[in-house]
Amino acid sequence: MAERVLVIGGGGREHALAWKLAQSPHVQQVSVSNHAILAQYCKDHNVGMVDDLMAAGVTCFGPSARAAQLEASKSFSKAFMDRQGIPTARWGSFTDPQEACNYIRTASFPALVVKASGLAAGKGVIVAANQDEACTAVMDILKEKTFGSAGETVVVEELLEGEEVSDHKRLKDGDLGPNTGGMGAYCPTPQVPGRLQVEESRETPQLSVAPWWSTTTTTTRTPRGWGGGGDPRRTTRLR
């Protein structure tokens, strides 16, 4: 029996899903809808769309409300990576702008990446050139509400030097300009050795997915709250 499928979302990923679904002999009709009002309602009221649809007997796939926090909250995802031993830049999470600026000026590493913790259409990250610029970004997000409710919490992160191999975010050539929602990517990436690609493809998804299958989840808090800071000695080992 052919199925009717509704894909919720209007981005490139949703269109790729719809394109492949439309090729399936098991699918009669594919509808793609942005459903911006519905999506915003779910964000505002912490409603898990997949959870509620499954509870109502509607077959669907996608992240649960708990799992969606990995995308919806940078503070949550950074704490999650620390707990699961996934390599990540050192960081701190703040709701007070003065505490964030103190962290920027006293960190033992260049704490120059300022992020609105919530969803900001891929534009909520400022890679500052110096501490003053980073503090200005903190003030813009927390006090001026540049990103609205997405900026109620900021994550201040260690600046990692090097070529980004997952996506292209900066607006201008030469890795200059503000971050964008993504300027495209290519595969394979010649900057990453093949063995490392295989290692990462095996280890990181397992570390990320495993906790969601357990019956209990433990969380830890540090004196900074949802801070923690990744271990600077942590490296990916090639086997």
Tell me about this structure.
This protein is α+β, with helices and mostly antiparallel strands. The chain is 37% helix and 15% strand. The strands form three sheets. It has a four-stranded antiparallel sheet with strand order 3-6-4-5, with helices on both faces. A two-stranded parallel sheet has the order 1-2. Strand 1 (3-8), helix 1 (12-22) and strand 2 form a beta-alpha-beta unit. It starts with a strand and ends in a 26-residue tail after the last helix.
Q: How is this structure best summarized?
A:
By secondary structure, the protein is α+β, with helices and mostly antiparallel strands. It has helices at 12-22, 36-45, 49-55, 65-72, 74-84, 97-106, 131-142, 194-213, and strands spanning 3-8, 27-33, 91-94, 113-116, 125-127, 154-157, 170-172, 176-179. Helix content is 37%, strand content 15%.
Mean pLDDT: 78
| Strand/helix succession | EHEHHHHEHEEHEEEH
Content-based structural category: alpha+beta
The DSSP helix count reads 8
The rounded distance between the terminal residues' Cα atoms is 47 Å
How would the global form be characterised? globular
Overall strand count: 8
Major beta-sheet overview: 4 strands, antiparallel
Poorly predicted tracts of residues: 213-239
Strand order of the largest sheet: 3-6-4-5
Percent helix among the residues? 25-40%
